Amino acid sequence: ALCLSTKMGVIRPDSVRAMHSLLEQGRLHRVVLASEARSFSAGYDLTFIQQAALEDRFDLIDVALLDLQRLGELLGQIPSVAAVYGHCLGAGLELALSCWQVAALAESQIGLPESRVGLIPGGRGTALTRLNNQHSVKKLAEVACLLFTGAISPSADQARQVGYLRPHDATIYHPDRLIWEAKKLALEVKAPPSEPWKTPEGPLAGMIDRHCLDGKSRCEVSDYDEVIASKIKQIFVKPASFEEALDWERKEFVDLARKPLTHARIKHMLETGKPLRN
């Protein structure tokens, strides 16, 4: 097993580099990605993003995202299963989805809530969610809405239904069996079929805009959420390939990290543990 050992499974630049180094050595031929914390992962280290922004070192943020994306690519090259429980959020879900399969405890809280801190998924999360749901323009618009509202699924089965998890990802119903089942799956797992990046057929941009306007009319989407939604929309609509989408999501993440309203959201989350809808 490859284990996250930080508090709440928080993913930091040094832990990304350590896992990257282990995988690059080629000694691990099958992997169960797990965590020693109370939750699988609460996401990326916000204090790192905050400090880099305060120091005007946005190059460090870009490098950290590139490292996270490359770690995901390495996980995707070997038989791998993520054993998910508790919270599986943000960068934690990005790494889990890079594995060939996710084994998620039934009551896991799963999602990509980066918009709650004024950001978007930048470690392959936006591109993977787009790729995994491209069979339907309606589904893509719904998934884009999940991302710009920062929605979190309260269960593994709902996460699969809404498009965070994939159809072949497994739900485990007994906590004591999670690691055992994940190890069993890792011995049997087959590489998922390589999905080509497809141009959506239909008015995807307009459908995403409609979701955004509906949310604003219900006072569930703020003006700044609308800015974030526009960036997610561009990544869903414009790139011609998965690789281009990765570059795009990294660029948009860094652009948002420069903005004062994002700084306010990050500060509020770190101080209160609650999202700020500015």
Write up what this structure looks like.
The chain has 278 residues and is an alpha/beta fold. 52% of the residues lie in helices and 10% in strands. It contains twelve helices and eight strands. The strands form two sheets. A five-stranded parallel sheet has the order 1-2-3-5-8, with helices on both faces. It is globular.
Number of β-strand runs: 8
Principal-axis shape equals: globular
Q: Termini distance?
A: 41 Å
Helix and strand pattern: EHEHHEEHEEHHEHEHHHHH
Radius of gyration: 18 Å
Mean pLDDT: 96
How many individual helices?
A: 12
- Uncertain spans, ≥5 residues at pLDDT below 50? none
Strand order of the largest sheet: 1-2-3-5-8
Structural class: alpha/beta
Q: What fraction of the residues are assigned to beta strands by DSSP?
A: 5-15%
Question: How much helicity do the residues have?
Answer: 40-55%
The major beta sheet can be summarized as: 5 strands, parallel
Features:
278 residues; 5-stranded parallel sheet; 3-stranded mixed sheet; alpha/beta; 52% helix
Question: Quick summary of this structure?
Answer:
Helices cover 52% and strands 10% of the residues.
Structural topology:
Elements: E1 2-4, H1 13-24, E2 31-35, H2 46-54, H3 58-75, E3 80-84, E4 87-89, H4 91-98, E5 101-105, E6 109-111, H5 125-132, H6 137-149, E7 152-153, H7 156-162, E8 170-172, H8 178-188, H9 204-217, H10 223-237, H11 242-257, H12 260-272
Parallel strand pairs: 1-2, 2-3, 3-5, 4-6, 5-8
Antiparallel strand pairs: 6-7
